[in-house]
Amino acid sequence: MLITSADMITATQLPQIHKDPFDRILIAQAHNNRCHLMTVDRKIAQYEMPYLLIV
């Protein structure tokens, strides 16, 4: 999946829970594209957004 300007904007608007810019882009892409993001990362789990699946 390509990183779009919309993904970059969304990533910068996320709460500063997770400091890793790559993970923030993944969260933004999942949100913008309505895709499921599966993770074991507890910091990502703190984002209350649709499409986040914590395993």
How would you portray this structure in words?
The chain is mainly α and 55 residues long. 47% of the residues lie in helices and 11% in strands. It has helices at 5-13, 21-33, 42-45, and strands spanning 37-39, 52-54. The chain has a two-stranded parallel ribbon with strand order 1-2. Helix 1 (5-13) crosses helix 2.
How are the elements arranged and paired?
Elements: H1 5-13, H2 21-33, E1 37-39, H3 42-45, E2 52-54
Parallel strand pairs: 1-2
Strands, total number: 2
Share of residues in helices: 40-55%
Report the portion of residues in β strands: 5-15%
Structural class, by secondary structure, is: mainly alpha
Describe the global form: globular
- Strands across the major sheet, in which order? 1-2
- How far apart are the first and last residues' alpha carbons, in Å? 22 Å
Instruction: Give me the number of helical elements.
Output: 3
Kindly report the average pLDDT value.
89
**Rg from alpha-carbon coordinates:** 10 Å
What is the chain-wise order of helices and strands?
Answer: HHEHE
Largest sheet: 2 strands, parallel
Low-confidence parts lasting 5 or more residues at pLDDT below 50?
none
